[in-house]
Amino acid sequence: MTRATRQDAPSAAPHAAADHHDLIRVHGARENNLKDVSIEIPKRRLTVFTGVSGSGKSSLVFDTIAAESQRLINETYSAFLQGFMPTLARPEVDVLEGLTTAIIVDQQRLGADPRSTVGTATDANAMLRILFSRLGDPHIGSPNAYSFNVPSVRAHGAITVERGNAKTVRQSFTRTGGMCPHCEGRGTVSDIDLTQLYDDSKSISEGAFTIPGWKSDSWWTVRLYADSGFLDPDKPIRDFTEQEMRDFLYREPTKVKVEGANLTYEGLIPKIQKSFLSKDREGMQPHIRAFVDRAVTFTACPECEGTRLSEAARSSRIGELNIADACALQITDLADWVATLDEPSVAPLLAALRHTLDSFVEIGLGYLSLDRPAGTLSGGEAQRVKMIRHLGSSLTDVTYVFDEPTIGLHPHDIERMNGLLLRLRDKGNTVLVVEHKPETIAIADHVVDLGPGAGTGGGTISFEGTVAGLRASDTLTGRHLDDRATLKKDVREPTGALEIRGANRHNLQDVDVDIPLGVLTVVTGVAGSGKSSLIHGSVPKSDEVVSVDQSPIRGSRRSNPATYTGLLDPIRKAFAKANGVKPALFSANSEGACPNCKGAGVVYTDLGMMAGVSATCEECDGKRFEASVLEHHLGGKDISEVLAMPVTEAEEFFREGEARTPAAHRILTRLADVGLGYLTLGQPLTTLSGGERQRLKLATHMADKGGTYVLDEPTTGLHLADVDQLLALLDRLVDSGKSVIVIEHHQAVMAHADWIIDLGPGAGHDGGRVVFEGTPAELVAKRGTVTGEHLAAYVGG
């Protein structure tokens, strides 16, 4: 081995120009609510961005710095490749200097495709398939033979090869896939309750269908069945002949002509399966999800026993395990099994697989299994799964951007996450973290605090410097950084109990527990200990139970708080009544829309592979409504001025006087109660932060009539100062006679509870048991669990 000798000679001149690029410089950032923000962020350091929810953290970090880095990288590709990539517009900023490649690790859920699992979302499944294709006994084929996403294909026939003298030859083709042919790789089969699809005492002409969206005048559905020629549309469905019933329910796709249009007729069962059952339940709109829950029963596929794999794929084994068994193991156990394999012919593959599985364990996700559906992961779990591919990366001088990486983590797990962030920094990377937790703020090299308020009250730099400087500053974050909740002296007495017996969903080990009613109950424990399995799997679903989970709010840029909460309906009716016109005029998605921009307020110009251009509509000046609509007033304001109001101003506007609208005022009061008083009524949902969206969902559900509220980590995205407001809201719910059950890790919420149920002691098969139930004071006094230790340290007990 030879090594080049190095002769150090004094440089003729210092590399001042190169050293000048040790900072990321932002000048004049105006994205969303940012107000000409200028800042210099040190490279190869850990910088934490703090501030109340809606203060502009994500606008600065994600929508400005990370977005411009990605846009510049995309521009290095050829125009052909750019045509297949998302087009990104340049952020509203004057100057951005010193950018490096940005790797974004956000809270977006992993793909909700029914076939997507933890294994397919990472490289683990692909490596396992290769491993079994090399070592599996009996050998059944290539890695595709072990994939539940690949069906087996057989074909034979004549083909013509046009080369020189064209000639026809006989060919056969075979591909062995691992997909179970019965459930098509989904692991479940569905049984449809026909009584939920139609009323058989009525005819199709009389509106027999009870499927959401299938109205009696919908020509593309109901008229298709009525005019297909296969059925008598005026005969009650119960009187159909055997042939009519077969055509009605099961007929294969057939071309028909309806009202001069060529359409495809298909039996009701396959049509329902394609339009509803091929989609992931978690991604459905609430009313569609409720219909599917009523009409469809999902059971494990009887042929593959829920493994998704064909019989051949399940017959091939390494030792005593087939690939389905391996994917069903808890990842910690799977890592131990892989470590026992010693086969030189696949040594590099085994090393890579061990590293991936060890990364799962290191990041605190060892309790998962590779066959866990990706759509069931929480936002925090999804973010940590994305982190796995970066843990062993050899890249340096990269900018890693994290969005609240401690979401869903117990205080015990936050220490481990902090260590991972520091490791990324110590490899020479720039780490930018948007975070609220004091434990993560404390490890920062540099802190940027945005504020001073939220929405229009934020968008400026309140402080930048060290953690000690933030603590000494007079900013909202600085004042609350050392806040500590105190234990309650007196707790409420329960009015009853919800009995759970023999709960065994996922990792729960026949749990028996009584959840007190009429009080604030907190269910806690380390990540993966079984909290969500216990509450979401055991608390009965009924009209009496209002569940506010972490599923994302779906909506386009046309959706806003007014449309999502139903606030726009009473506002439109009030405008219509005051002016003697139709309510539809006051909707930017209906008759009142500006004809030029179609109610969007902006006109988009698509430039192919280049970033599209959006310009404020010249016709309506961005107000979204037709000019004639804006001539109608309520309380001296037109509809565009009302939608531009913040919630607090609108609450006062609709409280009394000419504009008094009790229905609108009630919704606005709920929005203010959850801390969203700064949002404007017409602000697009796509611009809201994660915490804002969850509180918007909470405000909407507060109108429900249920007596029990189940909240899943409501402190997600909340600033330290906002937690007090949330606790006050929970108190008001309990004092009004409601029962509130909160799945939570935040020590302030634990300290404020009337009753705590702690699960553990570990995660996965090391958890699933109730390790404590009682008052917070008793938990602190005993300190017998990990939660008790951290809560005692928090309250100074």
TrEMBL record:
Region Disordered, annotated ranges: 1-21
Domain of life: Bacteria
Alphabetically ordered keywords of this record: ATP-binding, Cytoplasm, DNA damage, DNA excision, DNA repair, DNA-binding, Excision nuclease, Nucleotide-binding, Repeat
Subcellular localization, as worded in the UniProt entry: Cytoplasm
ABC transporter domain span: 491-786
Main location: cytoplasm
Similarity-based family: Belongs to the ABC transporter superfamily. UvrA family.
Record protein name field: UvrABC system protein A
